[in-house]
Design a protein that fits this description.
Elements (H helix, E strand, L loop, with lengths): L17 E2 L14 H6 L5 E3 L2 E8 L20 E5 L13 E2 L23 E9 L8 E6 L2 E2 L1 E6 L2 E6 L6 E4 L8 E9 L12 E2 L3 E2 L3 E6 L2 E12 L6 E11 L4 E7 L5 E9 L3 E8 L13 E8 L5 E9 L4 E4 L2 E4 L2 E2 L2 E5 L13 H13 L4 E3 L7 H10 L2 E5 L9 E2 L2 E2 L10 H18 L5 E5 L8 H13 L4 E3 L16 E4 L3 H8 L7 E8 L9 H4 L1 H4 L3 E7 L7 E3 L5 E3 L29 H8 L3 E5 L3 E6 L9 E9 L2 E8 L7 E6 L9 E11 L11 E11 L11 E5 L3 E6 L2 E6 L4 E7 L2 E2 L3 E6 L6 H5 L2 H4 L2 H7 L8 E6 L2 E10 L5 E10 L4 E7 L10 E7 L6 E8 L12 E7 L17 E4 L1 E5 L5 E6 L4 E6 L3 H6 L13 E8 L24 E9 L1
Parallel strand pairs: 26-27, 26-35, 27-28, 28-31, 31-32, 33-34, 34-35
Antiparallel strand pairs: 1-10, 2-15, 3-4, 3-6, 5-13, 6-12, 7-11, 7-15, 8-14, 9-10, 9-12, 16-17, 17-20, 18-19, 18-21, 21-22, 23-24, 24-25, 29-30, 36-37, 38-39, 39-42, 40-41, 40-43, 43-44, 45-46, 46-47, 47-48, 48-49, 50-55, 51-52, 52-53, 53-54, 54-63, 55-62, 56-57, 56-59, 58-61, 59-60, 60-63, ...
């Protein structure tokens, strides 16, 4: 579309989405010589990143309309960093929103119109001089990402217009450039018709947020490369074919060489005359195939020469051989059924928003590999090109998703109502969405990591998205096509090659797969990891072994979308929707990551790493069963370390080698001593890397397994020691060697516990029934349905007549009975038995009551007088874990601090729990310690700087008060956290706590 006069009307016309933009093409690099190619620095590319002149306007009527003119004064302009978001450079307003459109309730508009009074405009200006290597050639300008629509001028000459925020828009500027200083002007609009189909669940930014550069091309230039790295039917040979599209002077020649990873030539093509279309092909015998396990890449070098034989262009392009196909209704990679152990990944940085850096991507790719995540869905737009290169190199499978989401046009507050859905079947929207499919495919088609094209996300279904799928298949039959939206409109079921759903329960998946389905099943989103979540994930990963047509899923999602912001006192803190006075908003719904926004791991990652591990280890007393779930690699790259712990302490370790073929299991015996001494023994086996890799050093653990057994024995009879009981009018004192305990008839609890002069009770030790509400608890209304338990602990009824005291031979027993403020009434009895050493056997019994709802938790809480320094425990760890999220935790002795144990979820909530605790020790600043030991069965425990009530009342971490004490929770029962979704899915029944049944918490308090 060649139009010379820019018009604002284009902003509201879905049929005008690219003016003077050149055709999308592959993202290959090119050089003027082989020496330059070896350096990897393109001499024909000139970056324009940096500080630009900038003017901001709230709406088009306030913009500097003629700012693009060559002599327009810049004295009233500010500055802005490119790449970067306008809103993160001090202009405009940040806004987070999920499915609603940002103008919902503020502007009465429907597609394709914009709110003309609320459409921020950024006017960018950059003066530059063209670098010498680019002169005397055809020149172009590339915008790798601009949100949402923009106009471009060079030296006052209109260049073009572009939409689609997440793929390149490129324009020829040869005719507009001059010698000396050139002025580039870019006018960016936050809203356009494109905003109706860019309704992704993220912060709504605008501006030039990816690289900008000028580039030139040689007289003869390879404009596009399309490498087909197929594999023979027996998966032995590589079937290489590359299609080249040339432009310019065709008087020279073109040749090519294909080399393996070691630089050895495996195929070559002698020089042929340059033509607009050139194709090279070859069969590579015994080719190394690309996979996530062994991401082997060859390198194709294309050389163009002029009519005199001089080299004019060199293109080094990586290539991978692999075949991804549907066989017998199952997706296969290189002949093997593939399972995606995946995650959805937004591009995000806590300070830069979606304008992320190479360092960010390097951190991400290493995190994925270290946590056994083998696949990423680029939600819900194409990522920067570097990400695909890294996935090719490191071995990550990709669902590459087109930039399309129109969620708010067809689903409102969960209800499906597509009466004005876009793009739907509307002919005026068809070309623009198909163009988005073209843009992502043409740029990314040479990346072997891309297995699946996705038509976008949550845009319902219709003829326009069907046209996208048809384009993907016609242009690239070597990949499959994904689209979840057909689940809501089965008339267009043929859009997607696989059955893709979001947040289906594991039982729903089983039901589908048990019905002889036509398509394999993939969860494009599952395990909504909002706040303290990811409980029950194993129910999904177990499906891998139950159904061949279950082919995995993609966790939602990778990273919290939180922005760093300074408060009124200059202190930085994490934010979410609403913290910028942005309305409408979806508040903290942006906090769904297994990684915090500052790129530190959350406790949830521990479970993911374990459940996604492709080496399963099952030790017993004589050895270990090694199940190699890899598709192509044996285990020769791994060292297996067998360790035995006794009561948490290591007593045996042995390194073993075991070479297990892919998709095979093998039992490897280990010469292990026979342990007869009474105690608990934990047999653990770890798989460690033998050598350094791109993503981890030698010795890094990729998987583990453990087995627990107990050698019974007689317990040592303790020597009875004398103590004194003092019966006061109100209190009962128990005094012995190095301890003093005060039971209060009035308060109904222990009010003082002194060991060796150290007071440990700051508030009376009392039963608790509540935990700080999690995001999932809010979403499934658990905190509403079970709110009675919030008051049950805080407002119980106690009468001093319900204090019972019994003295016996070497002990004293004090019992308290509490009547809870529930309807119907219920009660809890707590009994303390003190011996002559000052040890206290504690037993709390909630007696159950028909008609009462489920409990969040049950146990006792100790609040210390002062803040403690550290705590240690023997139980599941090292990270926070719960009854439905503890498979990735392992038994051991661990140490932490109360402050560090406060997980940094965006909204403070229940956190820091440990399951299967055998003993817990907390210590103060001076080294004094108190211990809690399990009786009959392990308990759950947490040590935190805040009570559940304090966490409950805070909306942000910075709302929490200064730390003044430490809260020790010893729990006989802790509800699971759930995570099938965060807006209604309940915790699975086996991880719930009935209010109608008896509950017991039992443990020992002792000096340590």
């Amino acid at each position: 579309m060649e139009l010379k006069t820019p018009k604002l009307e284009w902003l509201e016309d879905p049929q005008i989405f690219a003016v003077n933009r050149i055709q999308a093409h592959s993202d290959h690099c090119y050089y003027e010589s082989e020496k330059e190619a070896q350096k990897g620095e393109m001499g024909l590319r000139q970056s324009l990143n940096g500080i630009w002149k900038f003017s901001y306007a709230d709406h088009p009527g306030k913009r500097e309309e003629h700012f693009y003119e060559v002599n327009f004064p810049m004295d009233q302009f500010g500055t802005i960093e490119v790449p970067g978001h306008i809103e993160l450079n001090g202009y405009g307003q940040c806004q987070y929103i999920n499915t609603m459109y940002p103008w919902d309730g503020l502007a009465d508009i429907r597609p394709p119109f914009t709110d003309k009074q609320n459409n921020p405009v950024g006017s960018y200006v950059r003066d530059f001089e063209l670098e010498a290597p680019l002169m005397d050639k055809r020149q172009f300008i590339s915008f790798q990402g601009v949100e949402t629509a923009f106009y471009v001028w060079v030296n006052g000459i209109f260049i073009g217009y572009g939409e689609d925020s997440f793929t390149p828009s490129e324009f020829e500027i040869t005719h507009a450039l001059k010698e000396g200083t050139n002025r580039l002007a870019v006018e960016v609009y936050k809203r356009s018709s494109a905003s109706w189909i860019e309704d992704q669940d993220f912060f709504r930014f605008s501006g030039i947020f990816r690289d900008v550069y000028v580039y030139a091309i040689p007289k003869c230039h390879v404009e596009d490369v399309f490498i087909h790295g197929d594999v023979s039917d027996d998966y032995q040979d590589g079937l290489f074919r590359t299609e080249l599209k040339l432009m310019g002077d065709m008087s020279g020649t073109i040749s090519a060489i294909l080399r393996d990873r070691d630089g050895k030539e495996v195929a070559s093509w002698e020089a042929v005359s340059a033509n607009e279309r050139v194709e090279f092909s070859a069969r590579i015998a015994n080719a190394h195939l690309w996979s996530g396990e062994n991401p082997y890449q060859y390198e194709l070098t294309i050389v163009l020469t002029d009519s005199q034989g001089n080299v004019t262009e060199v293109i080094p392009q990586k290539a991978g051989f692999r075949r991804f196909e549907m066989k017998n209704r199952i997706m296969h990679l290189n002949g093997k059924r593939i399972v995606f152990r995946g995650i959805n990944r937004h591009e995000f940085n806590v300070r830069r928003g979606r304008s992320i850096t190479k360092e960010d991507m390097m951190w991400d790719i290493r995190f994925l590999k270290r946590h056994n995540i083998n696949a990423v869905r680029t939600c819900h737009y194409p990522d920067q090109s570097l990400w695909y290169e890294l996935c090719d190199e490191y071995g990550i499978y990709l669902i590459d998703e087109a930039n399309l989401e129109s969620h708010g046009s067809w689903q409102k507050m969960g209800a499906i109502e597509p009466s004005w859905n876009v793009p739907g079947n509307l002919p005026e929207w068809k070309d623009c969405v198909v163009d988005r499919a073209k843009s992502v495919l043409e740029r990314d088609k040479n990346h072997p990591s891309v297995l699946i094209w996705s038509c976008g996300n949550e845009s319902y279904a219709g003829e326009d998205i069907l046209a996208m799928a048809d384009f993907f298949r016609d242009r690239d039959p070597g990949r499959l096509v994904h689209y979840e939206g057909v689940f809501h409109n089965r008339a267009y079921d043929n859009i997607s090659d696989m059955e893709s759903r979001m947040y289906a329960t594991a039982s729903d998946v089983s039901e589908y797969l048990s019905g002889d389905p036509k398509k394999p099943f993939v969860l494009c989103e599952y395990m909504h990891a909002m706040g303290n979540s990811l409980g029950g994930m194993h129910k999904y990963t177990n499906l891998e072994d139950q159904y061949d047509m279950y082919q995995g899923g993609f966790i939602w999602d990778y990273m919290d979308q939180s922005l760093m912001k300074k408060d009124a006192y200059g202190k930085e803190h994490m934010t979410y929707g609403g913290d910028f006075n942005d309305r409408p908003t979806d508040y903290s719904f942006c906090g769904n990551g297994i990684v915090y926004a500052d790129r530190t791991e959350s406790p949830k990652a521990q479970e993911v790493k374990y459940l996604y591990q492709d080496i399963r280890l099952t030790p017993d007393l004589n050895g270990v069963t090694i199940e190699n779930r890899r598709l192509f690699m044996d285990t020769s790259d791994l060292e297996f370390v067998y360790t035995v712990l006794k009561d948490g302490e290591p007593i045996f370790e042995k390194s073993i080698d075991a070479n297990v073929d892919p998709l095979k299991s093998q039992y490897t015996p280990v010469d292990i001593p026979k342990f007869a001494e009474p105690g608990e023994y934990v047999h653990q086996v770890s798989a460690l890397l033998k050598e350094d890799t791109l993503w981890a050093d030698a010795g890094f653990e990729i998987s583990f397994g453990e087995h627990v057994f107990v050698v019974e024995g007689k317990t040592k009879e303790s020597v009875q020691e004398s103590f004194k009981v003092v019966y006061g009018d109100v209190n009962i004192g128990v005094i012995g060697d190095g301890f003093r305990i005060l039971f209060s008839r009035q308060e109904g609890s222990i009010v003082s516990l002194v060991y060796d002069g150290k007071e440990w009770v700051g508030r009376p030790l009392m039963p608790i029934y509540w935990r700080a509400t999690t995001d999932n608890d809010k979403g499934n209304k658990f905190s509403v349905n079970s709110s009675v338990w919030y008051g049950a602990g805080r407002f119980c009824r106690y009468d001093n007549k319900n204090c019972q005291v019994e003295e016996g031979d070497g002990f004293i027993k004090v019992s308290y009975l509490y009547e809870l403020s529930t309807v119907p009434k219920s009660s809890t009895k707590v009994t303390y038995i003190v011996d002559g050493k000052g040890s206290i056997l504690v037993k709390a019994v909630y007696q159950g009551q028909k008609g009462l709802p489920q409990l969040p938790a049950f146990g006792l809480r100790l609040i210390t007088p002062d803040a403690l320094k550290t705590f240690a425990w023997y139980g599941k760890g090292p990270e926070e874990n719960y009854c439905d999220r503890n498979q990735g935790a392992r038994l051991g002795i661990y140490k932490d601090t109360p402050e560090n144990n406060l997980s940094r979820y965006l909204v403070p909530q229940e956190c820091g729990n440990r399951t299967e605790v055998r003993w817990l020790k907390v210590s103060d600043m001076e080294g004094h310690s108190i211990g809690f030991k399990a009786v009959n069965q392990p308990f759950d425990a947490s040590v935190l700087p805040y009570t559940a009530e304090e966490l409950e009342s805070a909306t942000h971490r910075e709302d929490l008060p200064l730390v003044r004490y430490t809260v020790v929770n010893i729990l006989g029962a802790m509800r699971g956290i759930g995570g099938d979704d965060s807006w209604g899915a309940p915790v699975h029944p086996e991880y719930c706590i009935s209010g109608e049944e008896e509950l017991i918490t039992e443990f020992m308090i002792e000096k340590r």
